[in-house]
Amino acid sequence: MTQFSDFLGAIAAIPAFENAFATIGAILAAMAALALVEAAIPLHSREGWNRFHLAPNLGLTFITFATNIVFNTALVLLLAWLQTIGFGILHQFPLPPLVTLVVVVLALDFSFYGAHVAMHEVPAFWRYHRVHHSDPAVDVTTTIRQHPGESVIRYAFLAVFAAALGVSPAAFAVYRVQSVLQGLFEHSNIRLPRWFDTMLSLVITSPNMHKVHHARDARYTDRNFGNITSLWDRLFLTFVSARVGEDVVCGLDGFDERGQQGFWGLLAMPYRRPRETLVDERS
């Protein structure tokens, strides 16, 4: 009975659980702010695709918001319960609060890296992830252009890592906010001084560093997987210099028709083959 009371108390103390819609509003505000920066200092000039992809990208973004509310709620409830019973590595080896938070952010960022690599290496996963990769004009609206099937894959990895560590709901909330804000930044179509972008890529995933990952050139598609930090790409030898990202052409061969890039076409993409046979060996 005491554990159940502690569990209810833990739920009541979770800001992210109570403020999901406020968080969504903050994300949309951040997207709008970065869109203004993109208009002022674009890396690549806006073309027809930038106008066309806006509605489909925002459509998938709002679907992702809806699915993430469900998954975040379920995972937060799980973490709150695990916290009441003292389950997880961090409960067995307590650390100072700030150190614990750093460990949580790095560990969950590594789970993102692992999930991302898996979505490129496992054909069934890649079918869902290519919805994100097929955008011919990568900008801030591409960030949450994600098929619901990809959300399932990402949260499966995240849940395993978070539960094994015994991550607190509050630390999980910090990670999720940092992850999405970094995602918006790295996808944004903004021109930064080369030296500054390169300097950023020493620690975090900079915009040019992530543009390499979205290159249509297959040599670069399986590189620069990281989200928050560039550490994992450097450690596992998947890092390519951010300078390469300045001039890449984005998208996936075989998925450039307007019908495929529309809202319903993107939802159906995992279940269809590319128009150009065998251009994408993982499909």
Short characterization:
This protein has 283 residues and is mostly helical. It has helices spanning 2-12, 15-18, 20-40, 48-52, 54-85, 89-92, 97-121, 123-133, 148-165, 169-187, 194-200, 207-213, 218-221, 231-235, 258-261, 263-268.
SSE topology string: HHHHHHHHHHHHHHHH
Low-confidence stretches: 1-5, 7-17, 277-281
- Could you give a short account of the major beta sheet? none
Question: Can you count the helices?
Answer: 16
Approximate strand percentage: under 5%
What overall form do the CA principal axes indicate?
Answer: globular
State the end-to-end distance: 51 Å
Helix/strand class: mainly alpha
| E-strand count | 0
Radius of gyration over C-alpha positions, nearest whole angstrom: 19 Å
Binned, the helix content reads 55-70%
- Mean pLDDT, as a whole number? 91
Question: What report would you give on this structure?
Answer:
The protein is an all-alpha fold and 283 residues long. 65% of the residues lie in helices and 0% in strands. The chain has 16 helices and no strands. The protein has helices at residues 2-12, 15-18, 20-40, 48-52, 54-85, 89-92, 97-121, 123-133, 148-165, 169-187, 194-200, 207-213, 218-221, 231-235, 258-261, 263-268. α3 runs parallel beside α10 (169-187). The protein is globular. The model is unreliable at 1-5, 7-17 and 277-281 (pLDDT under 50).
